[in-house]
Amino acid sequence: MSDQTSSFPAEFRAAGTDLSERRRSGVSRGAIVDIDVASAMTEITWDETGAGHIGAFVTIAAIAADARIALNYPAFSAAAAGLATPQIRNVATIGGNLAQRSRCWYYRNPHVACLKKGGPTCPARDGNHLYGVAFDLGPCVTPHASTMAAAILAYDGTIVTTSRPMLQIRNFLGDGSSAQDNSLVPGELITTIQMPPPVPEAGFYKRAISRTHAEWPLVELVTRLSIADGKVRTASLVAGGIAPVPLRLSGAEKVLLGSAISASTIGDACSAAIAAAKPLPMTVYKLQLLRGLMHDVLGRLESNP
């Protein structure tokens, strides 16, 4: 092994959809560690409570095609079906999707130092941040790349790793104040994603994309709602593409809880969702996209409660 290679950390290789690109660009140059995959890591199983356990090596396409996943976790299923392109979904794994690195073009350039590579600053903050965050929560202004992380957060799922038997998705993602993409440490591998027992509810996933950058959304929204007697009883709304981590829209959830879905309620929820936003000069447009996604998803429930 050359000195140049040994100065970079070793990385696990699963399907390689992200790692291969990083190696082509020269951002990743460390040793590759192939994974000895246990059968449980390639399966979707169900426990006695009806909760789904998804192996880290299950492909995104397999999740999207699973009828029981679609029945019990409709927004999670829809997020998988809407992710990237059919070619990528057929290869990419859910573990790889969760562990992928930043899509920022400064991070992906091997000749540019940035916080995620141990540099002193985030060059996107004062540079080209057209696809950056609209909620400025920390030093890095690039949105988290994982659609499935947003979906798991909406369902309060947990992650099992080789080091930790139950890692809350919030702890896996962090709060955006770190330059790290996730809380995995060197040598730690995701093995399983554990979903909660299913409950009767409506679930939706919607994304806004740039036609020339279709693989990653500008803004995405994962929504879970249960309605009884014409009023919202439970609500979980998570947005991706707008912050360094998938963001729970707690203000919008509070507006919806106990209310009937109406044009007025939807408008109030949209306003609450962006109340704490701190957009960068080039990302104000993302707040309008988020409002549009919320109007679209919640409007379906207004017309079909």
3D structure, described in words:
- This protein has two domains: 170 residues, Uridine Diphospho-n-acetylenolpyruvylglucosamine Reductase, domain 3 (2-Layer Sandwich); 102 residues, Enolase-like, domain 1 (2-Layer Sandwich), CATH 3.30.390.50.
- Helices cover 32% and strands 17% of the residues.
- It has a five-stranded antiparallel sheet with strand order 3-4-7-5-6. A four-stranded antiparallel sheet has the order 8-9-10-11. A two-stranded parallel sheet has the order 1-2.
- Strand 1, helix 2 and strand 2 form a beta-alpha-beta unit.
- It is globular, with a radius of gyration of 19 Å.
- The N terminus is likely disordered.
Strand-helix topology:
Elements: H1 3-6, E1 11-13, H2 19-25, E2 32-34, E3 44-46, E4 52-55, H3 60-65, H4 67-72, H5 74-82, H6 86-91, H7 94-99, H8 123-126, H9 147-154, E5 158-161, E6 167-168, H10 169-173, E7 190-194, E8 202-208, E9 219-228, E10 231-240, E11 247-248, H11 250-256, H12 263-273, H13 285-303
Parallel strand pairs: 1-2
Antiparallel strand pairs: 3-4, 4-7, 5-6, 5-7, 8-9, 9-10, 10-11
Helix pairs in contact: 5-9, 11-12, 12-13
Summarize the helix and strand pattern as letters. Answer: HEHEEEHHHHHHHEEHEEEEEHHH
Strand line-up in the sheet with most strands: 3-4-7-5-6
Q: Low-confidence parts lasting 5 or more residues at pLDDT below 50?
A: 1-5
| CATH class label of the largest domain | Alpha Beta
Distance between the termini: 62 Å
Number of DSSP helical runs: 13
Number of strands: 11
| Averaged pLDDT | 92
Find the CATH topology of the largest domain: Uridine Diphospho-n-acetylenolpyruvylglucosamine Reductase, domain 3
Helix content: 25-40%
Structural class: alpha+beta
What's the Cα radius of gyration?
A: 19 Å
The profile of the biggest β sheet is: 5 strands, antiparallel
Strand content of the residues, in percent? 15-25%
Q: What coarse outline follows from CA principal-axis ratios?
A: globular
Number of domains: 2
Specify the oligomeric state: single chain
